[in-house]
Amino acid sequence: MSRLLTLAVAVAAVPQFARGDDGIAPETVLAVKKATVLVLVKGDGWEASGSGFVVAADDRRVLVATNQHVVVPKPGARAGTKAGSVTVVFDSGTKAERSYRATVAAAQADPDLAVLGVEGVKDAPKPLAHADRAKLVETMPVYTFGFPFGTALSVTEGNPAVTVGRATVSSLRSGPDGELAVVQIDGNLNPGNSGGPVVDAKGGLVGVAVATVRNGQGIGFAVPAAELAKLMRGRVGRVSVAPRKEADGTATVRIEAELIDPAERLASAVAHYLVLSPGTKRPDTTALDKHPGSKTVGLTVGKGTAAAEFKLPAAEGEILVQVAAGAAGQAGETAPVRAFSLVAGPSAAALAGPPPAGWKEYTPADRAFVMWVPEKPAKQADEERELVVGGQTLRLRTLVGTTAVGLAYEAQSAALPAPFAAVPKAEVYDLFRGAVAAELGGRVRDTRDVTAGPLTGFEYVIAARTATARVRVFVSGPRVYLVLVRGTAAQAAGAEAETILGAFRLPAEGATRPTPAASAPKAAGSAAAAAGPKAKTPTVVGGNGPLFGGAPFVKDVAPDGGLLVGLEVVIARPYRDELVRSVRPIYRVGEKEAFGKQFGTALGSPMSVKAKPGYAVGGIAAKARNVCDGFSLTFMRVVDGKLDPADRYESEWVGWNGGVPAVRVESDGTPVVGFVGRANDKDVTGIGVLFRGQEGFDPIVALEPAILGGGRDPQFKDVAPAGGLLVGFEVGTAPAFGREMTRSVRPIYRVGEGETLGEQRGTQLQKVVTIKAKPGYAVGAIAVMHGLGFDGISVTFMRVKGDRLDPTDRYDSEYVGSDEKKPLTRLGGDGTPVVGIVGKTNARDLTGMGLLLKGQEGFTPKPR
Fold this sequence. Notes:
About 5% of the residues lie in helices and about 50% in strands. The protein is globular, with a radius of gyration of 29 Å.
């Protein structure tokens, strides 16, 4: 919806107060105000605010709608911008005001919408009915609710009350599909009201306030309510297909689909697919399941993704895929048909060596990139040309060629004009997509995430009248890189096209040739890690930054007799830089390869960093700030079951390669037999390798329990009797600083059918509240308000399922403690049994507390 120099994202509502005689009843105003919330985002050195409104609520959590740009920094935002913590304020500016930490349950850039999840809300307001949409017509009055200018309009030191404004619908703008895309209103929109509700006189949702036109004399926009309803129903997002050619010529195909599912409705998913042999014309169908030649495979749903692997007779031609996902017993939401080539491009190991027979390496005069081109093309030349993008003219020196079979190809790089420096990167991609599609005279049929070494970008599949083009665009700093192929649909999906596109890369990122260990290159500023092959504890780089509070350790070990030979990685932009988001180890056992466990849920085009035959992973160099930013692998020749450090080579660098020093861990000949790292429920945050002899590394034991609050007070721990689980607390509160504060805790354990109490921590027992799980459940997580002290607590109980807890079957206790407006910090929640507590006390009070997970019983408390 937004375009260069046209729309400014960050909006609000007309600051004119609606009156009962304007057509909206006072009780309707009160109900919408009650559902409208203030959204506060705080990052490292920056703050932002916006508006939102409640769209769903139950006993477990409340869902709040807002704009994506309110809670997720845009690619290309100011330098250093990272995701911040999100707080939602209910009944802002009133005596009933209360604040809660929120998580992003779903977000999408087009249209600009997000849904936040908030747990433990007391007296949750009634949601606005987003499914019962208002009937719209131009000139009808509408009303906007929110918080223009954030907290600036507050007349106290606290948060402001809701502002209600009045406007009228001035235009209903439809998209290419004929559906309503934008509601235009004639009202000035102000920063801070982004994400607030726009309603009609009956309180029916018209849309979500999103943008204003710069110098537009009071023209503003809202995302239609129908788009929010689609998001809440759940839908299939990006779909990726990764083919792998096996030694016997067959192909293993992995399909992964992103599930955008804030209300957690989508319980099942299937993929309909149709394999097209080389030269076969694609069928013109929007419902692949109706095609007589299509097949269906069930997908496994979990953690926001749906995935499956299946076999095909050959790795050639292309595959059409259509994914459908739905709630149990209901018709699914179906994604569009997408086409993917079954021919894999050159691997990182192949790029490290010479081009294959019939190909040669090409580097332009400015050495901006490297690629492979045919040794004997039908024609090839360097040309000068111009491309108009966003009103700016780029002068390009372009490689133009045609293969012997008629596949056209082009490649170029250029410096971006100065005005692009102020444009978010997402919009730069939109501009190039439109410019290239217009130049080719076609329409964009599909968009895919792609990588080329450290470059990440998009591939646009453009269908013109007489040809199909695949265009890859990479925007990196002040430069843009473009490479394309064009021909028939079969040519564009064939092996030549994959070779040309897949071999395009930066010249400095090609793998180095084998070098002896004595002269092996070291990462700039790197230091030899303390935990090398002879240490019992492996080194993990990243995952312990202040934004993550210490993500849990993870481990994956090769099958018997296997060696780690590479990693399959997805690179994405959670903030400003391209970072490692998910990792899957690749093992070689004899002549066969196998994947290990997937860590991280990010979707996109996975890239494989893999050793050539006869070599295996012998080390890793990684950089990290809060998370794992990037890495390279050292490959060593396998000789009689060991590694030869003298015969080695380095992979390309994957991910961000900024100025922080790299940590390098290398083998002394000891084989690498697994992967270690740190990961939360969404992303890989740390990375390392597991040497033979380190298989006994215990991820749970390695993670020291977190204690919230307590300052420098002495630590303690309390452990359940053998076989027992923590099932609750006796919590003592007492007045302090004008508030009722938590001052003592006594754990409650359940052993078999009996219960027992742990040691009392703290002496304040004037008022004691018991928080205890019902039969069959136990403590799985806690949400704590704390500073230097331990101010308040709520408990999440999970069903006991064998030797684990089930995070999907849970409920929350009441909150006990301070009513201060501070966010809550959450501990636990991944299903690991809780067998005790840790904490801090002084002579009188409990001042800090945390959970003791199974496997952490050996934790030694520290004295003051």
